[in-house]
Structures are given as C-alpha cells and as structure tokens.
Amino acid sequence: MTQRNLLIDSELCVGCQACEIACKQEHNLPVGPRWIRVVQVGPRPAGGRLVMSFHPTRCMNCGKPPCVDACPEGAITKRADGNVLINEALCTGCMACIEACPFDAPQFNQETNTVGMCTLCAHRTDYGLMPACSLACPTGAIQFGEINSLIEKKRAERAARTLSRI
Amino acid sequence: MAIELDALLRQQMEPTGLYGQAEAEVVRTVCQSCHCGCGVLVHLREGRIIKIEGNPEHPLNEGIICPKGMTSWQVVYHPDRLKYPLKRAGARGENRWQRISWDEALDTIAEKLKDILKTDGPMAIAGTFGGKPTRIRNAMHSLINSLGSPNSGYSDASFCWGPYPVAEVNTYGGYTFTEMNADARNSNCIIVWGGNPTQSHPTYGRLISNARARGAKLVVVDPRFTAIASKADVWLQVRPGTDAALALGMLNVIINEGLYDKEFVDRWCLGFEELKERVQQYPVEKVAEITWVPAEDIVRVARMYASTRPATIYARVAVETHLDSTQGMRALACLVAVTGNIDVKGGNVFSVYPRGFYSFHGQRRKWWREKANGDAEQEQRLGAREFPLLCGPNSPIGSPHPTTMVRSVLTGKPYPIKAWFVANNLLLCLPNSSEVYQALKKVDFLVVWELFMTPTAQLADIILPAAHWLETNNIMDAYSNYIAARPRAIEPVGEAWDEMKIVFEILDRVGKEFCYFPARNADEYDDNRLKGLGMTFNDLKEMTVLSAPIPYKRYEQEGFQTPSGKVELYSGTFEKYGYDPLPHYVEPKPGPVSTPELARDYPLVLTTGAIRVSYMHSEGRAIPWLRELAPDPEIEIHPDTAAQLGIRQGDWVWIETPNVDGRIKQKARLTSGIDSRVVCCEAHWWFPEKPAPDYGHWEVNINKMLSGDPTPTETGTIVLRGLLCRIYKAEEN
After folding, report:
1. Which of A31, B227, B265, B461 is most buried, taking the most CB atoms under 10 A from its CB?
2. Is residue B323 a part of any domain in this protein?
3. pLDDT at position B507 over 50
4. What confidence category does residue B731 fall into, taking pLDDT thresholds of 50, 70 and 90?
C-alpha cells in the first residue's frame, strides 16, 4: 500500500511554532503534551559563519517502530499506510513507549493519564483533508502525502533552489 | 496555573475534523491579534467558537495562521476576562472593586467630563492606547476628538510608529517601511532592518521566507541572529544604536561608486549634491569601526542592494528607538530614494485605498485639516511645541508626545491632564515605569478600558470591559491596497461592550456630537465610513476583501506629496523647523564610546524589546498555550560573557542600568547569536498569575530600568536600544 507521511523541509522552517498550536487546537491537547515540537539547533559556528535551523519533530512513523514492540498492552499498531497509532482505550499510561522512542514523539497527557502522539491527523487525512500543522505552516515547510513522491518532488525543488543561487 | 486554567478553557472545545466541520457554522472575518490583519475562518458550534483557521482566500495570509491568531478564542473565553464595569472601592492600587452598572459608570464619567470641560476646558482630557486586539484606535480618537481635545494617540508615538512616518513623509510624502508596503512578494532583494518578522508578524515573515526560497537575495540587519537572519545571504550584526551610521555608510558606497539610479535622482530628487557631500563624512572604514560590522560586508550589501532590482527595505521599530531615530529613518528613506526603489513593484510601495474610502487616519487628518481653528487646536496638543513634526498640525500621525503627557500630570506643565482614558497596559509599556506609576496614581480621574485586569487597570477609578475583535464589527483598513470587513463572530462575553458603543454613549451623556462625520451609533459609524463607496457594512461583509489596483509610480502623474513635489533628500521642512535637513548619525549616549568611564561600571551594551511569537507587547501571558511556548522573560547572553560572570543557561540574572536605581531579573538564555559585548532583554513582562496589584512586573519588566527622558531630537524619542547595563547572577538560583 502507498506509504503516507509528513515531509518537513527544515530549510523553509522559520521556527514560528504555528504547527504546535494548530496541533493542540485540532487535538484538544492540554498544556504539557506537544505532539509536534519545533526543535532549534544552533546558533553554532560552521564554515566561518553562524548557522541555525529549526526542526519540527513528531512521530516519524518508523519502518520498524520500537514503540510497538515496547507497549505491553499492544495498544500501538502500524497501519498498512505506515501511520503508527496509539489506541487510547488500551493505553494504561505506563510510558514504556516514551522510553523506547528515539524521537521523543509519544507524549504523556496528565488529564487523561494516557500517552498520545501525532496521528497524521487521520481523522482529516483519511477523508482527503490536510493535517492541521501543514495547513497552518506559513512557509510550506510541512507537507503531507505519499512519501516517495513527496521526496522526489522535494529533491527537484531543492536542486532548483540551489541552482538559482549560483 | 496553566494546567487547571487550560482544562477549564478547553471544556468549551471539542475536537473537530471532517465530521465536526459539517455541523459547524463558519464566520469569515479578519484577525487583529497583531497589525497584520490575516483572513480567518472562525468555526462555531451552538454559538461558541471551537477553532480558528486561516482563510485560504485572503490575499495576505492565503490560509495560514499564527499562534496568536489561533489562540484568540482562549482570550475571549478566558475566565479572567473583565465582564462588568468596575468602580474603585479603596485607595488606588488597593485592589478593592465594586461591580457597577453601565449606567452608573457612564453617568459618573459624563459628570466628571462636564465638570472638567467647564473648569479646565477640553485640553485637560486625554486618551492613550496601544495595540490591543479591539477597535480601540478608532474609539479613543473618536471620543477625545469629539470632546474637543487633540490629546489622543498611541502611548508609544515617540518611539514606535512616530519617527519613521515623520522621516518618510518628509522625504517622499508617504510611509512604506511597514509590512505589505515593503513589497517582499515581488522583490529580488530584501533588507530586513531591525525587525524579527517571523516571530512578530509571521504571515509577513512568510512572504520574505518565500521570496528567499524563490531566489531573492536577503539581508538582515540585527544585533541578534534571528530566525530570519539564519536564512539570509548576509547578516549584518550591527552594534545596537548605530544603524544610522550603517545606512550612511551604505549611501557613501552607493553614491561614490555611482550605483544610484541617476535618471530617477536627476528627475525626482532634491538635494542630491548636499547628500553626496554629507555621506563623505561616513567612509566605510569609519562606519565599520562605529557599527562593528566588517567593512567588506557593508560594501557587499550596499552593492547588492543598489544593483538588484527591484529591492525593498523592511525597517521596523528598532531604528525608531535610537537616539537618532528620525535621522536614522531618514537615512534609510534616502537609500530607498536614490536607488529608485520608491513606489515601484517589488520596492517600497505607498498604500492605496479603494476610491471613495478613507482609512481611519486619513479621515482624521482630513477632518483636522478642514476644521475651523484646527491648526491652532493642534498646536495646543501636548508636545506640539517641543516636537512639532510629531505632534503639531503637520504631523503624519497627530499624536501627543507620550512622556510630555505623563509629565503634564506630574508637573502641571504646560497644562495638567485631569481626565485620562487609558486603553492599554501603559505602566508596562512606557519606559521609567516608576514615573508612569506616579502619574497614573496622581491624575484626577483615570478610566481604563480593558479585556483583563492589569497593573495599569489596578490604578483606575473606573474600569470599562471592552469587547474583543471576535465580538465587534470593524473595518480592517491598515496597509497595502485593500480593506475588509471584520464582522463579529460572537456576542461579547458578560457585559463587555463594543468600544464605539461606549464612545457614543459617553458623547450622548455629555451632549457632544460625533465629530468626524454624522453618526449616532456604532452601526451607523461602520456604514457611514463606507458611504463614499456606495456600500454598507453588510455589503462589504459579502466579500473577502475589497481591493484597489496599485498604480505604482504614482509620482509620474501626481508628483510626490511633499512641499516641492519631489523627493527631498535635503528636507526643506526639517530645515524650516531648525533640524538637520540631511540625515546624520549620533553616537549612543551613554555608551561604550561616548561615556567610557560609565562603561567601566556598566560594561555591557543593552538592547531591549525582543519579542517571541507568543506575545504582542504586554499581551498573551495569561493564555495557556502561548505561555507554554515562552514561560519566562529571557535575557540573551553570549556564552563567553556568561562564563566570565559564572552564569549558566536558565539562571536568573539581575540587570542594572545607569539610568534608574533598582534592578530587574530575567532568565539567562545563552546564545552565540549575540555579540559578547551585548545583551538583549525581553520587554513588557508581567505574571498575570501572581498577586495583584503588581502581578510581579516590578521584578522583571525592563522598562522600569530605562530613562523616560525624551531626547532633544525631532520626535523626542525615548531610547530603548543601545544602552548600558551590568548583569550578575541572582542569589536564589
């Protein structure tokens, strides 16, 4: 089946955190859990100048997700389209998935005593709508779709961008 | 605080999505969480807002939306919203209040105003406001002007939206340094000068970022390595307070190397030879020494800006808060002019409105011009004598001078203000908080219009609960070439009122007419503003925006709106008022160069006013999702400086300045994105969750540590950037 995911272009991200708030609004999240979170790297010196970049981090929908294996309740599954989802009804809040995840994607929710994470806005994207983070993103840094064709498109786009500056 | 408050707020919300949207009602309106004015879609269920999205059809934001806009419903439904008029029931600042009816509040105000009009005259009535997300700008000017007083205006006119309009209008007759006028969308070279648009105005920041992605050149002038600086071709890390020198150095390169637009300069500019002579005082090596910017970078940027067409300069508040604010902005205006980038597509473009429509400011200026005795009345405005270009009849903004107002209460000179309407958190937003505090405590009668209880509102005699932009009709008329209806999405919470309604009710009771044009209530007001277009407010509501074609190079038909009809590089108006007709640079004082002895005790250069995406001025600290992104006030320090002082990331740090006794503290954020000789403080901080009446602002607000003395310049600026300070680790870490 075609694999769908978010593709994030950190060259375009300006760190405005609109995605974070759009996600909270869409999923009705309290203060605390941040299913998508902009991580700032830098400023640091590189090649005689300063560099800084922003990386919206969220569930990567891993090929072999360690959280699926770690969950003692079998609450986490990977769908055929690649989307890794937590079934909140089965989650006991043991946080084993939080330990297992290398990306800090699963987030504990104090209100519900369960763990949640990015669902790729399945309630929207399964019906042909775009995810909330992608809609709010001012620079088009967050895109959603069939991942291989997104990557192909992005390669061409970046090559054109680089060439235009030479 | 955040967790319980947040839970309470979100009880009103449900997750939406495809199924949710089908049931929801959607109101198309325009956001007013900052100055941008983005189109938004407000989703409602059973009359309550459940989410706010960007409007994909709106020409500015094209569907995107920033954190401030999205969380606007958290402002509206916040449990701490002021819902009823309040009357002070104890001494000022005692935090004892009595709920009263609107009738009682308005009658009390009207009686007091009638007394003052009889005994002191209208000049003793004043009104100030800021960037509050309501229609306060229209309301406050309307009220104060209708009562017969010229003393209404932005509380920060001398250092924000004051110096640059004065500079630009006196150079080429209109202002263009704002969002949307600096035409990033169509530009091939953009200079972001003293602004942080991806944090302060994300939808405009987006246009710059997009332009960069399509290959436009980007230059950022900023002491801090901001997000937009990290995307730039060249980042000029300027010493705070020396931007004017940098601009003059660039002019030196552009003129001496013959890179300016000769045809445009010959045909349209006055005083080029004088400017040429002036910039000889600013050779690149000297400018490099002043600004700490390497000489080769100055030359490179000057050549890039002058040789890339079209090019635009987006210049924001930083330059306006310097000792030479107006002259610095004049230097930038000269850069725009000599390169022929004024009023061209992709350059710096004048605003235009649909024919028959007046922007609020346009309408007000016209009314003053046509008013019998208008000039004489405006000459009475507070500050008009000292700063005629900012406060007099020919001012582009027609505001009183903020510090002069504060001091008129304290000293009675040139005449005292007796009744003061304050519609912002003035105490936090003006420098020298202690002096502002004394004035607010002393004034005879203080009325505050607010959404929330604030340290300023705590000092009021009467507090009026104002309606938020989601709760009132309005017309969005700022910037660019379009206007849009901003219809209300919901009714005001509690007994909050549309501020225009407050105006008409007060005027009725005092027996005064609404002044600008005939109107008897808020609805008539909105309709009559559109009369010249042959429309009503409901008609305008039907369209996303009503736009006018941008003519570009209007000067070819009409000339420039200056006395000479030309671009005045050498300003005749400045000369007439006794100011330097050519732009110049003034060394920051106190500073490491001008006061080296003082700099031994206060070794760091201080710049203030940095803002994060969560906040607009003093707003937003009570909004849970926004506060989560930026929980504490932060001071940016270079790691080397911090190491010398034993300060680590996240330590609380005391800050002292030579201007004012006392100290404040902020949390250390170590970053190599700032010069090791400079630190940068965030401004306007307070903690709404801390005890009244101060809410902790005396401990953290940098404005307390700044001098309120206006500089003896064109606009009487208060210096907020390019100061001195010393810092040390706070004991309690």
Report:
1. B227
2. yes
3. yes
4. confident
Mean pLDDT of chain B: 94
Which residues of A are less than 8 Å from B671 in CB distance?
A: 43
pLDDT above 80 for B14: no
Could you tell me which chain B residue has the CA closest to the CA of A40? Answer: B227
Q: CB–CB of B613 and A16 under 8 A?
A: yes
Q: Pick the closest to residue B374 from B150, B74, B700, B135 (CA basis).
A: B150
Q: If we measure between CA atoms, which residue out of B554, B561, B574, B562 comes closest to residue B275? A: B574
* H or E stretch at A70: helix A66-70
Inform me whether the pLDDT recorded for B312 exceeds 70: yes
Residues 168 through 227 of chain B touching chain A, CB cutoff 8 Å: 198-199, 202-203, 205-206, 209-210, 213-215, 225, 227
Q: What is the mean pLDDT of residues B521-539?
A: 96
Range of the domain at B632: 596-729
Residues B226 and B344 in one domain: yes
Residues B268 and B397 occupy one common structural domain: no
- Mark yes or no for CB contact B210/A51 under 8 Å: no
pLDDT of residue B2: 47
What is the CATH classification number for the domain harbouring B235? Answer: 3.40.228.10
Domains belonging to chain A, first-starting first, are 59-117 (3.30.70.20)
> Are B217 and B346 within one domain?
yes
Q: What are the phi and psi torsion angles at A45 (to 5°)?
A: -75, 140
**Do B222 and B263 form a contact (C-beta atoms < 8 A)?**
no
Report the residue of A17, A50, A133 to disrupt the B interface, i.e. the one with the largest count of B CBs within 10 Å. Answer: A17
Question: Quick check: A38 contacting B, CB < 8 Å?
Answer: no
Please check whether residue B18 touches A, CB under 8 A: yes
Considering the domain architecture, whether residues B213 and B347 belong to the same structural domain is answered as yes
> Is pLDDT of B237 > 90?
yes
Q: Is the predicted pLDDT of residue A161 greater than 90, yes or no?
A: no
| Average pLDDT, rounded, for chain A | 95
B146 and B175 in a single domain? The answer is no
- Same structural domain for residues B234 and B273? yes
Query: In the prediction, which pLDDT does B478 show?
Result: 72
CB pairs under 8 A between A and B: 135
Q: B-chain residues within 8 Å CB-CB of A34?
A: 628
In the predicted model, is pLDDT for residue B437 greater than 90?
yes
Q: Is B22 on the interface with A (CB under 8 A)?
A: no
Interchain contact, A50 vs B202, CB within 8 Å:
no
Q: Which residue from B minimizes the CA distance to A44?
A: B672
Average pLDDT over residues B390-405: 95
Distance CA A38, CA A18 (A): 10
pLDDT value of position B7: 55
Region B665-678 average pLDDT:
98
Determine, for residues A138 and B52 on separate chains, whether the beta-carbon distance falls below 8 Å: no
B67–A165: do the CB atoms touch at under 8 Å?
no
Amino acid identity for residue B97 in this structure: W
Tell me the torsion sign for CA atoms B19, B23, B28, B31: negative
Quick check: A30 contacting B, CB < 8 Å?
Answer: yes
Strands B125-129 and B152-154 come out as parallel
Looking at residue B709, which CATH number applies to its domain?
Answer: 2.40.40.20
pLDDT digits (tens, 9 = 90+) for B554-579: 999 999 999 999 999 999 999 999 99
Q: Check if the interface score ipTM surpasses 0.85.
A: yes
In terms of domains, do B292 and B170 share one?
yes
Give the gap in angstroms from C-alpha B65 to the nearest C-alpha of chain A.
5
CA distance B624 to B313: 36
pLDDT of residue B22 exceeding 60, the answer is no
Torsion of Cα atoms, B70 then B76 then B79 then B84, to 10°:
170
Would residue B46 count as lying in a domain?
A: no
Contacts of A137 in chain B (CB under 8 A): 64
Residue B600 within a domain: yes
**How many Cα atoms occupy the beta-carbon half-sphere of B187 within 13 Å?**
35
Q: What pLDDT sits at residue B13? A: 44
Number of separate domains in chain B: 3
- Same domain (yes/no): B322, B210: yes
Question: Is residue B105 a contact partner of residue B131, using CB atoms and an 8 Å limit?
Answer: no
Put simply, the answer to whether A21 touches B70 (Cβ < 8 Å) is yes
Interchain contact, A15 vs B10, CB within 8 Å: no
Contact B665, B731 (CB under 8 A): no
Residue B25 falls within a domain, yes or no? no
